[in-house]
Amino acid sequence: MINVIGLGYIGLPTALMFAKSGIEVIGTDLNKDLVDSLSQGKLTFVEKGLEELFAEALSNGIKFTTEYQKTGIYIIAVPTPFENFSKKINPEYVISAVNTVLDTCEKGAMLIIESTMPPGSIDRYIRPEIQKRGLVPGEDVNLAHAPERIIPGNMLYELEHNSRTIGVDDPGVGEKVKELYARFCKSEIIITDIRSAEMCKIVENTYRDVNIAFANELAKICRATGMDVYEIIRIANKHPRVNILQPGPGVGGHCISVDPWFLVGDYPDLTNLILTARKINDSMPTHVLSRIRDIMREHNINDISKIGLYGLAYKENVDDTRESPTLQLLKRMDEHLAFGVKVYDPLIKTRIVKHQFMNFEDFLNEIEILVIMTAHDHIKNNMGLIKGKLILDTKNICNFNDRVYKL
Ligand code: SAJ
Active-site residue 222, yes or no? Predict the structure, then answer.
């Protein structure tokens, strides 16, 4: 039996995949409401294909509880919250989960940590907890780090098809973990040491952040020189060794906008490119703000409440708002005393900001300038409804040009 600890964006799909593969799975989360909801067959977030997978896992007997189970295999997928001021993670949840596992587990249990841990954190925070108890690693407990790599919006496909990294102290233990993940992962599973596994995860997200920053910087250069950045990228990408990403209103999510800070924090003298990329991506909401001002000036619009931001989620077709560019933009607007801007996101069902609309047409009726911040399918499928508005299309999705402005 596998006990999956933490039933959020990563723990839940992982638990469901194991259950689908025929293993007995019990999912544990301290949040009773979440456990109750899952036990009643209700999902807690939106993700492509998740409902079907959930149904299969339920029919294979997956159970949800707030209690840790006595077993030989644990997968820990609890959050590692990012503390914006210190630019470090808070490892408390992982430490606490590890301790409860150590209180409960069978001798020789496998403890697999999937939560993102910056390089060196398992040595710094987790090993001491094991040593404190006089437990012998490799005998009383086996530690592994299997950082998740799946992309929200395509999680289930990527769980099956992405390669995986398994960090362990002993390659023999690595083989066992590999065998376990091979129940659903059809791609290569690479065994390495724990610090390298931690580092790879951070490096992957930093690579993407740096590349998005390049696209964003190009957008600013093209704006200043009156060129179309999308056309430049489209043509440049025809070169066989060029693959420029897309500019946007900023970089959100709990991963790409966060992980590079761990390298900057630990190696301040060695990180120039990475820090600059972070600053460029963080500057994009301010760039959006200046584009909104350009449009207001051009059309003699002075009333901030005539502006509507479409999209609160950090990217298309997810309901996750962590580090969302729209929230960053709203914060900048508040700092500039620009209150009253209206907001709508079809995937965010609870009110999390002021002037948030729950109905798209009501939202459209109230505004003159529509700022597309997130490229949900919903708006792509409703182009007819937004035609005629002044539009700032930060995601380059409009299929018409009249009254449309770009980044
Ligand atoms: N973005 C752009 N331009 C692009 C691509 C993305 O502005 O061309 C923006 C998005 O709009 C979003 C942000 O970047 O705001 C991040 O989105 P994303 O889709 O690139 O990535 P995440 O944060 O949803 O997921 C990433 C993935 N990492 C990589 O692609 C290297 C995923 O595989 C990881 O599992 C995940 O981080 C994680 O949990 O670490």
Answer: no
